[in-house]
Structures are given as structure tokens and as C-alpha cells.
Amino acid sequence: MRLIFVPVSNRPECAVALNEAFNLGKHLGASVKGCHIRLHETSTVSMPSDLENVADTDEIQNNNQSAEEMFAKLAQDNGYVFRKKQKSKPVALWSERKGTPDKVFSITGAVSDLIIVSRPIKEGKSKARQYMMSAILNSSRPVIILPQLQAPKIGKTISIAWNQSPQAIKAVAAAMPLLRLAKQVNIITCRPENKSGPKAKHLMKYLRAWGVKAKHVKSTGQNDVQAILNGYMESQSDLLIMGGYSHNRFKQRIFGGVTEYILNKANIPVFMLHSG
User: Fold this and answer.
1) At a CB cut-off of 8 Å and minimum separation 6, what does 1 contact?
2) How far apart are the C-alpha atoms of 221 and 235, rounded to whole Å?
């Protein structure tokens, strides 16, 4: 991973996401690109009301400046040199884009290696949810969704929610740079492995080929969500890797079940790749 993308506004949760991006960037040797997104003045695309509440040009300009100032300060605090153009070594990059989050993530997000966003405080229309959904559905890149409040630095103990699906194995492959840096990796299963896909033991062999030693955790709970969270908490993990559904499944009232809960209600860092 060489480029981490973070949407930025002057809000506390953005500072959390940026600090984590800079932390991961230092371990991965990656640049961090902060991007302030605002709706184009002539756009006819409907946006959540809290994305359209900036009334005049002066206030828009102030928001842009404060977001950039916050990014530059956090870059400096984390030992990153602030630049507006990519260099051969890791730097902190800044950009501003006009358009909807869907459009920006489909273009700028798509040419990044990893995207980091904040989890919405609650369900429904909100800026955080719009950004999270756009990042997952439109970038075709792996996304880390973080809790709103500051969490311990992620990546030391990683758990994989394993269900033998193609989506899960694609997420694991995308997360390999992080898995190789982890001190402990857990493969969490919560049902009998009777599908046609690879079992946990097959995944362990694959990870071993990359120099990653993993432990199989057979977790239980009242349902799949609780079993995954039980395994995650008992192993003292700081990041959960899981696959997304296919594009058609997303369009049918999107997530359903385990993914819906983990994304919106479980207050843990999640690494997800949507593969349609």
C-alpha cells in the first residue's frame, strides 16, 4: 500500500481518521491524501440536507481552509511533510474536489490503495453515512471504517470474519499488507464449515505462505453477529476484516444481517472490500 485516502472536513471524527491514516502510513511506507469534498454549485444531484447547509461562498471558503489547516497540523504532528504533489517518499497530500461523494470516490478513491472513513453516529441520512456508503460502493478499494471516538492504534491484533465466501477471501488478499505487519491474526468462524469454499485450515495455509501465522477461533453466540463480536473481543483484536456482498445484494436494501450490524452498530474498526 502506497497511498491512503481520507475525506476531510473540520470535525473531530475526521481528526481520528487522519491520525489513524498517518499511523498506518508510517508502518506501510504510504503517503496520506486528505481530500475536502464539496457539492458543485451547478450540481443537480440530491444530497443529504447536512451536506447542503453551507449557504454562501465565504463560509465554503472558510470550511475549506479550516479542513486544510487541520490536515496540515496533523500531518506535522505525525512527522509527515505537507505537499500538494506526490513525491517518491511518503508525504501528506492535500486536494479539494467538487462533486458528490459518489463521484469523488469513484475517481480519486479508486486510485488509492486504502480509504479510511468514520462510522456514522446513527443510521439514516448523514454526512458520515453518505461518505461511508460512497467509499464502500463506488471506489472498488478496501475501506477501513473507524469509530467516531479515538480508538487504540489498529493493526496489532487482527481478526478475520471467515464464512468461506469469495468476498471474504478478496478482503483478506486486499488486507495482506496489514496482516503481514500484525503480531496476531485470528480466523473467526461461527458456523460449521460445510460450504464449497475454503475452510479456515485452508486460509491458514494460504496466510502461512505470506509469512502470517494465524489462529482458528471457533466462536459462539446467540447469532452470527454476537459470535463474531465475542471472538473479536475475547482475542482483544483491534481490527476486523470482512468481505462485502455482491453489487446486486447491495442494491436490494443493501446490507442485511451481519454486515449491516457490524457497519452501523458495532463500535469497532472494520476493514471491508466490496467486490461486485
Assistant:
1) 28, 30, 113, 114, 177
2) 15
All cell numbers assigned to 239? 481490527
C-alpha cell recorded at residue 147? 469509530
The pTM score is: 0.87
Cell 461461527 -> residue: 190
pLDDT digits 0-9 by tens, 143-191: 999 988 766 689 999 999 999 999 999 999 999 999 999 999 999 999 8
How far are the Cα atoms of 7, 41, 65, 82 from residue 58, in angstroms, in the given order? 21, 14, 11, 25
CATH of the domain at 141: 3.40.50.620
Domain, as residue range, for 161: 157-273
H-helix or E-strand spanning residue 24: helix 12-28
Nearest by Cα to 231 from 157, 153, 169, 174? 157
- Which parts of the chain are beta strand (E)? 3-7, 31-38, 82-83, 92-98, 114-118, 143-146, 157-161, 184-189, 214-218, 239-243, 270-273
Residue 130 inside a domain? The answer is: yes
> Parallel, antiparallel, or unpaired: how do β-strands 184-189 and 157-161 relate?
parallel
User: Which of 146, 166, 183 represents a domain boundary (last residue)?
Assistant: 146
C-alpha cell at position 47:
444530497
Domain boundary pick from 91, 125, 146: 146
Q: C-alpha cell of 216?
A: 482458528
* Residues in contact with 10: Cβ distance below 8 Å, sequence separation at least 6, in sequence order: 63, 66, 67, 69, 70
Does residue 266 sit in the same domain as residue 204? yes
Q: What is residue 255's DSSP assignment?
A: -
Does a structural domain hold residue 141?
A: yes
pLDDT 10s digits, 8-23: 988 888 999 999 999 9
Cα separation, 55 vs 83, in Å, equals: 30
